Description:
The chain is an alpha/beta fold and 269 residues long. Helix content is 53%, strand content 13%. Bound molecules: zinc ion (ZN).
Amino acid sequence: MWIFVVLIGLGVAAFGLRLRWRQRFRKSLLTMALTGHQRAIVEQYVPLIRKLPTALRGTLEGKINVFLDQVEFVGCLGLEVTDEMRLSIAAQACLLVVNTETWYDDLHTILMYPGAFKSRTTEHHGDVVTERETVRVGESWSRGPVVLSWADAKQGALDEEDGHNVVFHEFAHQIDNLSGHTDGVPVLNNGQQVADWQHVFVSAFKRHVRNVESGHPTVFAAYGATGPEEFFAVAVEVFFERPAALKHESPAVYQQLAGLFHLDPSAWG
Length: 269
Ligand SMILES: [Zn+2]
């Protein structure tokens, strides 16, 4: 009997030691800078990073290190995942959380396709179940994984001013889902009120639906009219890529997102 007690004790001690070692390792990654080669790749593939205030660059690099340690990239349809792909995706994902405590705790896998991919969805309408195959450039599952088309993820980052970025979009869904629901209401920062957030986003979403229905173009992509969670994700895309236009067109949405991310991209470069 005692031998089992000793074995269980040893197991618990080994687990505790491993946990402590992981925590220390993660802390060291957070303080570690990227190599010159890695930094050059990040700046080439995600030009928006060059505009990030200098004071946040070190934090971003540390978070990129943790992200790359935590997340496994899996190439699909024969895609060979390269350092350029890993660094581009990690930099974009970490930019969203560079100045907050928010982290992708449940994310461990990113599936990468060379281009747009087919996705099968199941819809339930009463007793009727419909299966549909759609072509997508990105997908975010609650508690991971994220699925991305590399062609679109790469292009989305290279054109940093067009307001379209599939990586920002899918990682906005990941952030939204940390609250337990992907509904366009993420866990807010101290100082932000859920009632204020909902007031701003519900009215902005309704206005967007009306604009799309009447064919009136705005800073938000039309796709944002398909649901409050999609409106939040497209708003995150324009917050980082067209901050001045968003601030001008929808200052209340800009202000809420600035509070959520603790960032003010309209003042960058
Ligand atoms: Zn979406």
